[in-house]
Amino acid sequence: MVDVIIIGNGPAGVSAAIYIQRAGLKSLIIGKDTGSLAKAEKIENYYGFVNPISGKKLVSSGVLQAKRLGATYIKDEVTGLNYDGNFIVSTKNRSFTSKSVLIATGTVKNKPKIKGLKEFEGRGVSYCAVCDGFFYRGKDVAVVGNSDYALHEAKELLPLVKSLTLLTNGNNLNTNIPSKINVNFKKILSIEGGDTAEYINFDDGSAMNFDGIFIAIGSASSSDLAKKIGAEIEKDNIIVDKNLQTNIEGLFAAGDCTGGMLQISKAIYEGSKAGTEIIKFIRKNN
Ligand SMILES: Cc1cc2nc3c(=O)[nH]c(=O)nc-3n(C[C@H](O)[C@H](O)[C@H](O)COP(=O)(O)OP(=O)(O)OC[C@H]3O[C@@H](n4cnc5c(N)ncnc54)[C@H](O)[C@@H]3O)c2cc1C
Questions:
Q1: Cα 23 to ligand 1 centroid, rounded to whole Å
Q2: Which candidate, 283, 266, 244, places its Cα nearest to that of 101?
Q3: Cα 226 from Cα 28, distance rounded (Å)
Q4: Tens digits of per-residue pLDDT, 183-214?
Q5: Distance CA 195, CA 17 (A)
Q6: 2-109+220-284 architecture in CATH?
Q7: Which among 9, 32, 97, 197 is placed 20 to 30 Å from 81, CA to CA?
Q8: For residue range 222-244, what is the model confidence (pLDDT) as tens digits?
């Protein structure tokens, strides 16, 4: 067990790790890629660089700095977050436990542009299997997605539901699917229904009935992870107090995922502040 698991290796997560390591505590950073800064070719509004620096370089230097200070970094994708007295962070093949967690996963990914999706959110369309799966026990359920995260959500639902269909929405599969899960590769045109979502129309003119439709595109976003553990969100931003703590004790969030100014300087401030508050939290509780 480590003191803190930091989900995200961007400026917010790595800044927190730097403070935590220098206080003599142990942090594990789990991050899947370069995050938002992957596409930032030239950054010239960040303090201390005479010439513009690339986002990739900034991120890789930050990770090396945290590692030099003793942080452990694992390149992996987090699919689940839970609490049973300690925090449990799951990736595709492993799970880790910690005394506290920092969510620093950046901004929410684009939702798929499917007609009817917004209209039926909370009325048959869900973004969290562990939160809402129970409502669909014995029912016909779809998961929209084609990745490890979609498979993770499908596996949460499988023991509860009557049938489970993975809808790749015209995409190839990026993961191996157990035979109990049906796979449909058709492109989705719309979600239709009355009071609740009832069926999906596909671009070949066919349709399928579902009682529940779970959206799991790409990887788990900050708000997906927050929902799984019961942290409050507003408009896809995680709600934190002045110490960057969520409504769940020991669970912190920092950077783009808390909203406001989406800039490196703000992510670094919040990561540093969250790091110092996590240090206080760990020391108080041990
Ligand atoms: C094209 C572009 C250009 C920009 N230019 C500038 C600029 O010039 N100056 C500036 O100040 N800001 C700029 N920004 C904004 C800046 O990138 C962000 O504000 C900053 O990176 C936020 O840091 P963060 O740590 O909160 O999130 P991110 O940097 O996005 O890091 C999020 C981290 O979380 C990880 N992650 C996400 N989901 C998971 C998961 N499920 N499992 C594991 N890991 C996960 C990602 O791999 C990544 O490591 C730019 C953004 C873009 C898109």
A1: 25
A2: 244
A3: 19
A4: 999 999 999 999 999 999 999 999 999 999 99
A5: 47
A6: 3-Layer(bba) Sandwich (3.50)
A7: 197
A8: 999 999 999 999 988 999 999 99
What is the best residue among 43, 147, 224, 264 to mutate for testing ligand 1's pocket, by most ligand atoms within 8 Å of CB? 264
The CA distance from 71 to 3, in Å, is 11
- Give the residue extent of every domain in the chain: 2-109+220-284, 125-215
- What's the pLDDT at 50? 94
% of the chain surpassing 70 pLDDT: 99
What spacing in Å lies between the alpha carbon of 209 and ligand 1's midpoint? 38
pLDDT surpasses 90 at 7: yes
Burial 152-173 (b: 16+ CB within 10 A, else e): bbbbbbbebbeebbbbbbeeee
Q: Is 275 in the pocket of ligand 1 (CB under 6 A)?
A: no
Residue 29 beta carbon below 6 angstroms from any ligand 1 atom: no
* One fold for 2-109+220-284 and 125-215: yes
The position carrying tokens 């899960």 is 181
pLDDT exceeds 70 at position 10: yes
Q: What is the chain's alpha carbon radius of gyration, rounded to the nearest angstrom?
A: 20
Task: For residue 156, give both structure tokens.
Answer: 């949460």
Residue whose entry in the numeric block shows the structure tokens 């240090």? 279
Whether the Cβ atoms of residue 105 and residue 222 lie closer than 8 Å to each other: yes
Query: Residue 111: what pLDDT?
Result: 74
